Amino acid sequence: MNASAAAVPGPVGIVGAGPTGALLALLLRRRGLDVTLYESRPDPGDGPGESGRSINLALADRGIHALREAGVFGDIAGDLVAMRGRLVHHRDGTRSMQPYGSRPSEVIYSVSRHRLNQALLRAAAGEGPLDIRFEHRLEGADFDAGVAHVRDMRGGRMLRVPMRPLLAADGGGSTLRRRMAALGLIGAEEVDLDHAYKELSIPPDPAGGYALEQEALHIWPRGNFMLIALPNVDASFTATLFLPRRGEVSFEALDSSTAIDEFLRAQFPDAHALMPDCVSEFRRHSIGFLGTVFASRWHAGGMAALVGDAAHAIVPFHGQGMNCCFEDCLEFDACLRRAASWETVFVEFHAARKPNTDAIAAMALENYLEMRERVADPGFRLQQTLALELERRHPRRFIPRYSMVMFHHEIPYRDAQRRGAIQARLLADLTAGATSLAQVDYERAAARIIRDLSPLGPDRDPA
Fold this sequence. Notes:
By secondary structure, this protein is an alpha/beta fold. The protein has 3 domains: 225 residues, FAD/NAD(P)-binding domain; 97 residues; 76 residues, no CATH class. It contains 15 helices and 19 strands. The strands form 4 sheets. It has a 7-stranded mixed beta sheet. Strands 8-2-1-12-19-18 form a 6-stranded mixed beta sheet, with helices on both faces. A 3-stranded antiparallel beta sheet has the order 3-7-4. The radius of gyration is 23 Å and the shape is globular. It starts with 11 loop residues before the first strand and ends in an 11-residue tail after the last helix.
C-alpha cells in the first residue's frame, strides 16, 4: 500500500494498542504522522498472550483485505487455521457439517489475538519511530483545555497529553467515549446482553494432533446457550461457553465444582471428555461480558475521535468484530487522505461508517439465535442448502447474507443487511411445506430473484 503524506498535521495520540490501535498506528505512520500509543497493559513482548479472555479471533475477507492493504497479511499467514464450515454437535450425539460458502476460497480463519497484535505492532514500528507507552492508562479528559489525563502506572505520575488529536481505540469500555458522553458531547448507549461467556480449552490428542476435526468451527447448540471451539496452530482448540448470566441454567447457578462438571458432562459429553481441566479453568477464568455500543457521534470537534469497538462494539456472534474494526481503519485512512482538517476527517469517517456498523451490530445479534438454536433445525438447514443452490444458479444476484458479510469486503454491511432481508423472505416462501430441494419451484425463484435483486459487481464464476 503506497501512502502519500497526510494533509493534516501531527502528532497523533492513540489510546489502546490492541489490534485496532496497532493497525491504525501503522496506517498513520505511513502517512508520515508522529504517533504515540498509550496502552494500559504491560508490554507483552514476544511472550505468551493472556489466557481466559478472547484468545481467538475470527479473520474473514474484510480483515484480510485490510491486512493486505497494510502490507502485513504475509506476516501472519502462517498463524492462521482455516475453518471451512460449522461442525454442529447435536444433542443426540450426531454431527453435521454446514459449509460457510459454495467456493473453496470461502473460509474463515482462526488466529491468535496475541500473535496478530504483535505482528501489527512490529509492522507499525517498522515504519519509523513509534512511541509505545505500555502501562499508561487514560483516566480523563478536559475538553475545555484540550488535554487528556494519562497515568503512568509504573510510577503513578499523571501526564497531561494534548489532544491534537487523541484517537480512542480502547474497546467497548472506552474511557474516552464515556467521558465524552458524560459531558454531553455525544450520546452513547451500552446495551448489555443477558448472556456472558467463559473460555475453556481442548488440548491436543495424545499423539499431538487435533482432538476434533481441524478445519471447522465446532458448535454445540443448546437453545438458550451454546459451546463453540476454534482451532489453534498448536493443535489445541479454544472453547467458549456462552450462557445466561442469571437463572436456572446460568453462570450464577454453576457455583460449585460438582455443578460445573455435571453441567458440562450432561450438555456437551463429547467435548467434556476432551477437556481434562474444564472445571479448574471454569473456576479460574473470569466471566466475559457481552454487549453492543451505540454512539450518536464519534468525535468532539477536531480534538478526539472514537475508532473500532470504542465507537460501536458488537457481540461476537458473526465473527466480525475485529474485521469491522480493521475496515474502520482503512476508511479512516481514506478520509485522512482526502481531508484538510481533523474535524473533517472525523465527520466524513462517521458518515461513511455509522450506517454500516449499525447494520453489522443488528446482524451479529441475529446470528446468536442462529448459532445457538437454528443451526440444529432441519428447516433452517434446508434453507441454507437452497441458498447455496440459488447462488450457484444466479451468482451475480443471489449471494447468501452470511457470504456477503464474511467473503465480500466490497459489499457494505448495510447492503448485505438489506439484500439479506429480501433473500430471507424468498427462502421462507420457497421452502414453505417443503422437506427437500426437489420440492422447490426454481422457475418461481428465478423470477423473484431477477425482479428483486439487482446484479452485484462483475460476473462471478459458478461454484
